[in-house]
Amino acid sequence: MSISLLQQASPAIQVHVITALSALLLGAYLLLATKGTKTHRILGRIWIGIMVLTSVSSFFIHSLRLFYGFSPIHILSVMTLVGSWQAVAAARTGRIAEHRRHVGNLYSLALLTAGAFTLLPGRLMHRLLFGEGQGHAHLLAIGMLLLIVVFFQWRLRRDARPLAP
Questions:
Q1: How much is the average pLDDT of 66-76?
Q2: Which neighbouring-strand residues pair with 70?
C-alpha cells in the first residue's frame, strides 16, 4: 500500500476517495445498526451529505474521457444525486420501505459496485492497495465486493417483502 499515490493525486480525487471511504464505513454501520433512532437519523443525514459530496467531486475527475471529458461512471454520479434525494424524500414522508430500497441501492451500486471497478488493474485504487505488481489480489478484492453486493441485494429484497399478518 502506497499512500503517496493518493497524496500525488488531484484534490478532486483526494476528496472523492476520502468521502467514498467514509460513506462506505458509515453506510455499513447504518445498514447494520438499529433503524429509526435519533442516532440513525443524524448519522443518516451525515451519510447522505457525504454521498452527495462524493458524487459532486466525481464531476471534477476526468481520467476516463469518453464524452466531452466525462465517462459512463458520471451517469452513476447523477443517479446517486437523484437517489439521495429520493431516499430523503421517502424517509421524510414515512415511506420507509421505499427509503430502505433507495439507501440499499445507493450503498450497493454507488459504493460497492463502483468501488469494485476502482480496483481494476491500472486504476489508482488498485495501485494504492496492491502496488504496481501483477498479483491476483485484485481478483480476490473484486470477488469479495461482488459477494457483498449480492448479499445486500438479497437482504433488501428480503426486507422489502410484506410482513405476514
A1: 70
A2: 67
| Residue 104 counted as domain residue | yes
Task: Pick the closest to residue 145 from 102, 104, 111 (CA basis).
Answer: 111
CB–CB of 2/131 below 8 Å? yes
Range of the domain at 74: 4-159
Q: What is the mean pLDDT of the chain?
A: 81
Give the pLDDT mean for 75-90. 93
83 domain-assigned: yes
Q: What pLDDT score was predicted for residue 164?
A: 45
Residue 165 is assigned to a structural domain of this protein: no
Residue 164 located in a structural domain: no
How many C-beta atoms lie closer than 10 Å to residue 104's C-beta?
20
Q: Which helix (H) or strand (E) holds 116?
A: helix 114-118
Q: Which percentage of the chain shows pLDDT scores above 90?
A: 35
Q: How many domains does the chain have?
A: 1
DSSP state of 158: H
CB 109, CB 76: distance < 8 Å: yes
Q: Which three cell numbers stand for residue 96?
A: 420507509
Give φ, ψ of 147 to 5 degrees.
Answer: -65, -40
- Its pTM stands at 0.78
Helix (H) or strand (E) holding 143: helix 137-160
